[in-house]
Amino acid sequence: MDQSLLEQLKQVFKGDIAKDETTLMTYSHDASLFEVKPQLVVFPKDSDDVKALVKFVSEHKKDHPDLSLTGRSAGTDMAGGSINESIVVAFQKYLNHLVSIEGNIGTVEPGLFYRDFEAETLKRNLIFPSYPASRSICAMGGIVNNNSGGEKSLRYGKTEKYVKQVRVVLADGNEYILKPLNEKELKEKMEQKNFEGEIYRKMYKLITDNYDELQKAKPKVTKNSAGYYLWNVYDREKKIFDLTKLWVGAQGTLGLLLEAKIELVPVFPHREMEIIFLHDMSHLGEIIDAVLPLEPESFESYDDNTLMLALRYFPEFARQLGITGMIQAGLAFMPAFMEMLVGKLPKLILQVDFTGDNPEVLKQKVASLREKLKPLHPQTRIAIDDQEKKYWLVRRESFNLLRNKIRNKHTAPFIDDFVIDPHQIAEVIPQVTDILKKHPEFIFTVAGHVGNGNFHIIPIVDIQNPTVRKAIPEISNQVYDIVIKHGGSITGEHNDGLIRTPYLKQMYGEKIVKLFEETKNIFDPQNIFNPRKKVHGDLDYAMSHIRMNW
Ligand SMILES: Cc1cc2nc3c(=O)[nH]c(=O)nc-3n(C[C@H](O)[C@H](O)[C@H](O)COP(=O)(O)OP(=O)(O)OC[C@H]3O[C@@H](n4cnc5c(N)ncnc54)[C@H](O)[C@@H]3O)c2cc1C
C-alpha cells in the first residue's frame, strides 16, 4: 500500500496497523495449504474502527481496485479462507470479549476463543454444541463465518442452527443487525430508501423468483458448508425471512462480523460409549442403520492408519493424559498394540456416544445396539470408566498427529471434508481411497463423523515435489466427481475458501453459481470483502499460492 494511502488510513483508524515482515508472514498463513501475503494487517479497537475501515476502502476502491478486507479471528481456517492479499482485519487482539450470557443466549465478539467461551458456558451447565475439533485454538468469529460443525453435530446440527442474531458492518460502512424477520418487519425493511432496504428488496426478489430451483439445489446431506445457503433464508410457510442463515458460513464475503448471539444447550450429565471394531467394511451400512435410530450424540470413526499412527507415537500422544492417564491408556490400547504386531488392526474403529439425563436409558441403548449388532459379528467394547477419553483422543488428535509427526512432510487439506449420505459410505470411501492409492506420494488417514457421512481425508505429502502439486487438482476433480454423483457436498464444515470455491460450479451448476454471484453483488458491489472466496474462485491462483516453506 502506498505511503499516502496509509497516512490517510491512520487518520481514520484508531487501532493498530502492522506492515512489518514478521506480522505479514504470520498472517500469510492459516491451517490451509496456502500462503498469501497481505499488504497490511490491522487490529480494530472497536466497532467504529471497523466501520471506518470499510468506509475507507469503499471510498478508495475506485482508484485502488486491489484494496480489500479479509476478516480473521483465530486464523485456523483449513481452506485458505482467512488469508488474502490486501488488508487482513484481525479481530483477536481487541474484539475478543464475551459480552454476556443471559439465559441460554451467549453474546460473543468474533475474537473470543471458543475455549474461553466454553469455560464460561460450562459454569452454567450450558454448551454451544457445534464446536469444531479445533476447539482449543479457534475463535467464535471463525466458527460463525465458517458454519463450523463437530463431534456433536449429529444430534445438534451445525452452527447455523444456533446463531440467533448477528451485528455486522456491511459494504456501505454502516452497522446492521441481521435476525429473523416476520412479514411486517420484512416489508418495513424493504421500504427503507437506503442500502439496507436495497439489500432486502433485492435478496427477497432473488430468493422468491428462484424459490423452487433453490430448494432443489439444497444439498441432500445433513451437513453443508459449500456455497451460500440461499435455500434457508426464506421460510415460505412460516413467512420468516432470515439473513443470518445467509451470513453464517459466508466466510466474511458479505461483510465483517462484530458480534453474534449464540444459543446454548444444556449439558447432559450421563454418558455411555460403545466402541465397534470393524475388520471389513461389508456390514458398515447395516451397522449405521442399527446405530442412527438410537439417536447417539455422536458417531465418529477413524481407520487403521490413524490408529497405527497413534500407536506409533504413543508416548507423545498419551502425554496429554498425565501419568495415571498414560498408564490407563497403555492398558486400554494393549489389545491394539498386540493386533498391530501381528498385522491385524481393525480396518475401521467406530465410536458411538450416548448422552442423557437417565443412566438406565443409556445402558438400555447400548444393550439394544449390541443385540442388533450380534448377527453382524463385529468386535465391540463398552468403554468403561475413563477409557472413552483415550479413544476420543485418537479421533480428536488424528489431524494434529499428522500435522506434527511426520518429518519433511506436511498435511495437505484439499479433499478434507466431503459429505455423503452415510448409507453410501461403504460404496464411496473405497472409491475415494482407490484414487489416492494411485498416488504413492500421498500418505493418508481416514477419520470423520461417520453418522453424518462427513469424512476428513487429509494426506501428508512432500509439497516441494512437483508431482504432488500437480496431482492435487487432479485428485480433487476425481473425488468431487464421485461425491457429487452420490448427491454429496464438497464440504460439510471446513468451507470453500481458496481450495474449494473453484469447485462450486461442479457441485451446484451454472445457474445456482450465478445466483451466488448475484448475492455477492447485492451485498458487496465493489468486491471489498474477502475476494476469491465463495464466488469467482480461481484454481490457478490457489495452486500458485501453495505454501512451500513451513
Ligand atoms: C486441527 C484442526 C481441526 C479442525 N477441525 C474442525 C472441525 O471439526 N470442524 C470445523 O468446522 N472446522 C474445523 N477446523 C477448521 C477451523 O478451525 C474452524 O472452521 C474454525 O471454526 C475457524 O475458526 P477461526 O477463528 O480460526 O477462523 P478464521 O480462520 O479466523 O476464519 C475463518 C473464516 O471466517 C472469516 N472470518 C473470521 N472472522 C471474521 C469476522 N469477524 N468477520 C468476517 N469474517 C470473518 C475468515 O475470513 C475466514 O473466511 C479445524 C482446523 C484445525 C487446524
In short:
With 550 residues, the protein is of the alpha+beta class.
Summarize the structure in words.
By secondary structure, the chain is an alpha+beta fold. The strands form six sheets. A six-stranded antiparallel β-sheet has the order 18-15-17-16-20-21, with helices on both faces. Strands 5-6-13-8-9 form a five-stranded antiparallel β-sheet. The protein is globular. The model has no long low-confidence stretch (mean pLDDT 93). Flavin-adenine dinucleotide binds next to strand 3, helix 5, strand 13 and helix 17.
Evaluate the radius of gyration. Answer: 23 Å
- Choose one word for the global shape: globular
**Roughly what fraction of the amino acids lie in strands?**
15-25%
Number of strands: 22
Spatial order of strands in the largest sheet: 18-15-17-16-20-21
Q: Report how far apart the termini are.
A: 26 Å
Instruction: State the low-pLDDT regions, or none.
Output: none
From the structure above, extract its key features:
six-stranded antiparallel β-sheet, five-stranded antiparallel β-sheet, binds flavin-adenine dinucleotide, alpha+beta, 23 helices
Q: How are the SSEs placed, and which strands pair?
A:
Blueprint: H1 3-12, E1 16-18, H2 21-26, E2 40-43, H3 47-60, E3 69-72, E4 87-90, E5 98-102, E6 105-108, H4 114-123, E7 126-127, H5 140-146, H6 153-156, E8 163-169, E9 175-178, E10 180-181, H7 183-191, H8 195-209, H9 211-217, E11 234-235, E12 240-242, H10 244-247, E13 256-263, E14 265-266, E15 270-278, H11 284-291, E16 298-303, H12 304-312, H13 314-318, H14 322-332, H15 334-341, E17 348-356, H16 359-373, E18 379-383, H17 387-405, E19 410-411, H18 425-437, E20 446-449, E21 454-457, E22 460-461, H19 466-485, H20 497-500, H21 504-508, H22 510-523, H23 539-543
Helix pairs in contact: 7-8, 8-22, 12-17, 18-19
This protein binds flavin-adenine dinucleotide (FAD).
